[in-house]
Specification:
Bound molecules: zinc ion
CATH class of the largest domain: Alpha Beta
Helix content: 40-55%
Distance between the termini: 29 Å
CATH architecture of the largest domain: 3-Layer(aba) Sandwich
Order of helices and strands: HHHHEEEHEHEEHHEHEH
Strand content: 15-25%
Shape: globular
Number of strands: 8
CATH topology of the largest domain: Aminopeptidase
CATH superfamily of the largest domain: Zn peptidases
Number of domains: 2
């Protein structure tokens, strides 16, 4: 914001020396256009945080639970009101504890739905059944403010900005179910993203995903996002392009160095669907899988920063 005004001011000053008003108008217009492509629309930190709180007020959002259903209703309403096309992609799994069949669903929110070349922006929207890394209450309530709600809240906020963008590709927000529908260490992770990836490979849709970006645990009050090692392995060019956009957007919390190798929903997207996908994740979160993964340990400013990087990246998407 500060830079933008300065640029316009200095251009106007130079233009005043020139003779015609046409020149002045052209200069101002150019400056405004440059400013709008460089900075894009800014995500609203307070609104993003309100979304995070709203999601957490539902309580637990375990796959197949009433809380998950309430969250799905909330998201359908939210994105339809913003003019997106919303679809559920059902999947059936066996309950890891009870052995009974459970119906789950990924949610796909499409912007510019007629574009056949698309990019995917994903997060998981289920919460882990228990906070099993908690020191005292391993069977307590796991709210997943960062590990679950942060990605969802950011996508809800970005929903306000996508239609105004003119991205090179159509954009799909994908909410994966059952990222961690796990009760014991032998239970399978990533059921939703694996289903999505198999489906994409075995019944190819009329469109093609050029890239994918996954966000997970990006609400930490003390945000630092390093390059995740599996992202560098499977999608190096894409990963570098995101950090370059972060640099241009002036978001210093994105550090262009590798740290952490994370198993996440991007693995099936890369290995099964062959969509180059990187994971934006701040894995240095003190409250990971504990009862303290609460809104008070997250911040709207962090969500907005990641949002700024993504909006910048959408405008600069590589070929
Ligand atoms: Zn988790």
């Amino acid at each position: 914001m500060h830079t933008r005004r300065a640029a316009i001011r200095s251009l106007s000053r130079r233009s005043r020396k020139a003779s015609g008003t046409i020149l002045l108008t052209a200069a101002v217009l150019t400056a405004l256009l440059a400013a709008s492509t460089t900075h894009g629309a800014a995500p609203d930190a307070r609104r993003a945080f309100r979304y995070l709180e709203q999601i957490c007020r539902i309580g637990k959002r375990i796959s197949g639970s009433p809380g998950m259903e309430r969250q799905q209703q909330l998201l359908i309403q939210h994105f339809e009101a913003l003019g997106a096309q919303v679809k559920l992609q059902p999947l059936r799994v066996t309950h890891p504890l009870r052995g009974t069949p459970v119906r789950l669903a990924n949610m796909i929110v499409s912007w510019h739905p007629t574009s056949r070349e698309r990019v995917l922006l994903a997060c998981h929207y289920d919460t882990r059944p228990y906070p099993d890394r908690d020191r005292f209450r391993r069977r307590g309530v796991f709210l997943g403010a960062n590990d679950g709600a942060s990605g969802v809240a950011l996508l809800m906020e970005l929903g306000h900005h996508i239609r105004a963008l003119k991205p090179r590709y159509g954009i799909d927000f994908v909410f994966f179910d059952a990222e961690e529908f796990v009760y014991s260490s032998s239970d399978k992770y990533f059921l939703g993203s694996e289903h999505f990836s198999r489906n994409y490979k075995e019944q190819p849709p009329g469109h093609r995903y050029r890239f994918g970006v996954l966000v997970d645990m990006i609400g930490d009050k003390r945000l630092t996002v390093y390059q995740e090692k599996n992202s560098l392995k499977y999608a190096p060019a894409l990963t570098h392009s995101v950090w370059q956009s972060a640099k241009r957007a002036g978001v210093r919390e994105f550090v262009a160095k590798p740290k952490h190798e994370v198993q996440d929903d991007h693995i099936p997207l890369n290995t099964i669907a062959h969509i180059p996908t990187c994971d934006l994740i701040d894995f240095d979160y003190l409250y990971w899988h504990t009862t303290k993964d609460l809104p008070r340990n997250c911040s709207g400013a962090s969500l907005a920063k990641v949002g700024r990087v993504l909006l910048q990246w959408f405008e600069e998407m590589p070929d």
